[in-house]
Design goal:
The complex is a heterodimer of chains A (163) and B (262). Chain A has 163 residues and is mostly helical. Helices cover 35% and strands 0% of the residues of chain A. Chain A is globular and about 40 Å long. The chains are: A mainly alpha (163), B mainly alpha (262). Chain B: One of its GO terms (molecular function) is electron transfer activity.
């Protein structure tokens, strides 16, 4: 336990790495350096598939639902999807493909926090400038480029009819 | 150098919206203030309500026995703490607090261990050991129903600010803060769980997921791990500070050990 008369140290220890992190991350202004691989943002989307990969909607559905993968159902529901207990912290994504382009969906998965700085939605293709990350995940994005492309393929075809 | 650092941090603070150390203003209390109990399924509430079915009482019974077992010094906790002197009724509702002798911030576990080393000639107990959980649960139970009220003035102020900072700072691979779930999104569903206001008032609590009683720090480690944060160690300064912040934030709610949680 830190003693109260060392309280000043406590602030130094805590303050400095935070400052260093903020500087490394460039205070979030250098958006492209946050990503696991270079990404070009145009408007509110990422037009080109990550690493030029082709997505597969069936695999994407599994990424969306499975705990070991994206586990998006923690926060989002898709009507008709075969998954118990879908969350409602995020908006329902039923028919999201009719609302958003593939490029918009891609950026929202890859780095929603660059669009909405206060959002609860994690940035799944971000690998830098983070704080106190568990060693097992450090330096890695939460999802691979392939998993994200699979999600884009899956969500992009949700037009309100398909589940 | 100092001015430079201050300027830099001021810049970053404004640019990134990082948390400014704030020792003064009261915590943002969710309104209306509600215990985690409110967000449980009726059958889990029923388990907490029934002292005969509530599994937490297994630890409380063991704690009560340990409380009156003589230690190496020949003295039991109950020799000093009884109805006539140094009664512990209501005491747990005022932790964490600054220990006058050392100046450290201590929680209930810390106080129990100080009594062991200072008055009973015993070694401190390990966090999450059956003995420490049992004694902590028993002592907390003696305050069941007492409203939480902690002191955040004086030497505690810096700890309170540190706890608030931990609570409000984004961390982990998912880059989330405690605030985002427990101040901004309580009442909503995270898969099968309803996010509560994140109060520690049921702890030590029996969690169905653990199939055991566990400390508040164990619960904090679970929340941190969920966001893919490297959790702090049991009894760490950061978690003690968070515990103080949580207690102040919960002020007015009643201590309800042994809570039952999902």
């Amino acid at each position: 336990m830190v003693r109260a008369d060392h309280a000043a140290d406590l602030w130094m220890i805590r303050g400095l790495p935070v400052l260093a992190m903020a500087l490394l991350a460039g205070c979030g202004s250098e958006v492209t350096s946050r990503f696991a691989t270079p990404v070009e943002i145009t408007g509110d989307g990422i037009a080109a598939p990550l690493l030029g990969l082709q997505g597969d909607p069936e695999r994407g559905k599994a990424v969306f639902a499975e705990r070991e993968q994206g586990h998006c159902v923690l926060c989002h529901a898709v009507e008709g999807l075969d998954a118990e207990f879908q969350g409602n912290v995020g908006p329902a994504l039923t028919g999201v493909g009719a609302r958003l382009s593939d490029g918009q969906i891609r950026l929202r998965i890859a780095d929603a926090q660059s669009l909405w700085p206060d959002t609860l939605m994690p940035s799944y293709y971000r690998a830098g400038g983070l704080n106190q990350v568990a060693p097992a995940y450090a330096g890695e994005p939460a999802l691979t480029a392939q998993q994200i492309e699979d999600l884009v393929a899956y969500l992009g075809q949700l037009d309100g009819e398909r589940t | 150098m100092k001015a430079g650092l201050a300027l830099l941090s001021a810049l970053c603070l404004t640019a990134c919206g990082d948390v400014v150390a704030d020792t003064k203003s009261p915590p943002a209390q969710p309104q209306p203030l509600q215990s985690g109990y409110k967000f449980l399924q009726p059958q889990t509430q029923a388990l907490q309500d029934d002292d005969f079915a509530n599994p937490g009482f297994l630890w409380i019974d063991r704690g009560e026995a340990l409380f009156s077992t003589a230690a190496a010094s020949g003295e039991a906790c109950s020799d000093c703490h009884n109805d006539a002197s140094l009664s512990l009724a209501g005491a747990a509702a005022h932790y964490p607090q600054i220990d006058a002798e050392s100046g450290d911030l201590i929680n209930l576990e810390g106080r129990i261990n100080l009594c062991r080393t200072r008055h009973q000639d015993e070694a401190p107990l390990e966090y999450e050991s059956d003995e420490l959980l049992s004694l902590t649960a028993y002592v907390a139970y003696l305050s069941r129903g007492t409203p939480i009220s902690v002191d955040i003035e004086g030497a505690a102020a810096v700890w309170f600010a540190r706890g608030r900072d931990y609570f409000e700072t984004r961390r982990g691979q998912f880059n989330l803060s405690c605030t985002q779930c427990h101040d901004d999104n309580w009442g909503k569903k995270l898969r099968g769980d309803t996010i509560s206001q994140g109060h520690g008032t049921g702890f030590p609590a029996y969690r169905l997921e653990w199939q055991s009683l566990g400390s508040l720090h164990r619960r904090l480690r679970d929340c941190d791990s969920g966001v893919r944060v490297e959790p702090r160690p049991y009894g760490s300064d950061d978690y003690l500070a968070v515990e103080l912040y949580l207690a102040k934030r919960a002020e007015g709610l009643k201590l309800e050990t042994p809570g039952v949680r999902r």
